[in-house]
Amino acid sequence: MSLGAILKLRCSRCLEGEVYLPGRWFAMHDVCPRCGLKYEREPGFFLGAMYVSYTLGVLIALPVSATLFFKYDVGAGLSAFAGSILTAVATPWIVRVSRVAWLHFDQRLDPR
Ligand SMILES: [Zn+2]
Q: What's the gap in Å between 89 CA and the centre of ligand 1?
């Protein structure tokens, strides 16, 4: 598992092949263009990426909301709303990164 490869959206086995098709936000290669690793190991494989995306969403929203609430004394509702908006804006990035992170997590647990 390589944080650099995850952030660059690269293959979990060779760390070089692109996971997503160029110019497309959510369309993935079926297999790694470099090493041939099949990305979607089984139907529903990427459901596990939801755990990662939820965690990333919380990690993005919580510091913003907590800072607004505790440091700037903004109301709880407005603080939560600001964190939610920020997470909503970051969602396309979160989806892409969480799928790749899930690939790397799976590769670590069960190398193929
Ligand atoms: Zn690869």
A: 30
